[in-house]
Amino acid sequence: MKFATKVIHAGIEPDPSTGAIMTPVFQTSTYVQEAPGAHKGFEYARTQNPTRAVLEKNLAALENGADAVCFSSGLAAQDAVIKLLRPGDEVLSVNDLYGGSYRQMVRVYGPWGLKSRYIDMADATSVEAAIRPETRMLWIETPTNPMLNIVDIAAVCAIAREKGILTVVDNTFASPYLQNPLDLGADIVLHSATKYIGGHSDVVHGCLIVKDSALAEGLHFIQNASGAVPGPQDCFLILRGIKTLHLRVQRACENAAAIARHLAAHPKVEKVYWPGFEHHPNHGVARKQMRMFGAMVSFDLKNNTPEAARTVLSGTRLFALAESLGGVESLIGHPASMTHASIPREERLKVGLTDSLIRLSVGVEDVSDLIDDLDAAIAKA
After folding, report:
1. What is the predicted pLDDT for the residue at 298?
2. How many domains does the chain have?
3. pTM score of the predicted model
């Protein structure tokens, strides 16, 4: 089954009781049993919900996995993954990391006993050299947030497999339409489904997808035992969003490519970060493991000051100044004060995340309108 068919049909059947083509919202907290232990596969809504079960089958199919596990947010999904570890274990992570992921690893699980280190994973040999005896997990983002660095998933996963280390790939920026890390050797794929998978900026959700049944069983246990599950209405909204995932992401990628090239030629723009440029670090890897280059673009102005950046950030009309990404509408953000404020400034600067860096989540509007909007804002800087 091809991807465009999977988003519509994989794991989804008409409701057997009514024939409803859309999966119903099973808004219930519990299920009546015919006798003690005699039920229809559902006992309590934290543990199982029919709407969530359909979504999990659909998500597993999109990432070519065997099972998916849904959570109330992307960070709740990350929390479940970290609970696979024990105090003293180490996570080796990419150094250009979403601020919320960094905050959870360092400030929540650091005092608990988790060790975490952050390195440049652009070269797989440097990853191998950085592994220590206590390293139990490799945490990959690619493209990274917000510098859009590219990690060779297959190369890093091969190293991890040889050493018996779990690999987790946060695939939020790419979405299942552009990249499938399980096919490249990853053990766990994570999505903040709030972003491209949901796609309409109206729901917060997270998910994990795996191929190994024992790993899936362990994550389902944590899902139930810790209780950070999504409600059925949230699952319904994600299912609704998935049906147009391929259409939305393709259009957004096409728009982002046009905007990145326009900004690269702009006299007031110093540098543009977008994996589709041939000079972008690891462009060849991106071309190999992604179907398109994504709809995220970051850039610095030649007048590289926070004041100039604020003028642009406050001057757009169509690009909304807001956190998050991946919706149908275009967003503009300031990572240093928004999504990555929890990362110490000196650590941000090491990876090129300046106080004036601007991040775009390009939506599906008419691209000429988006370019005009950016030009008008940049002209004021």
Report:
1. 97
2. 2
3. 0.96
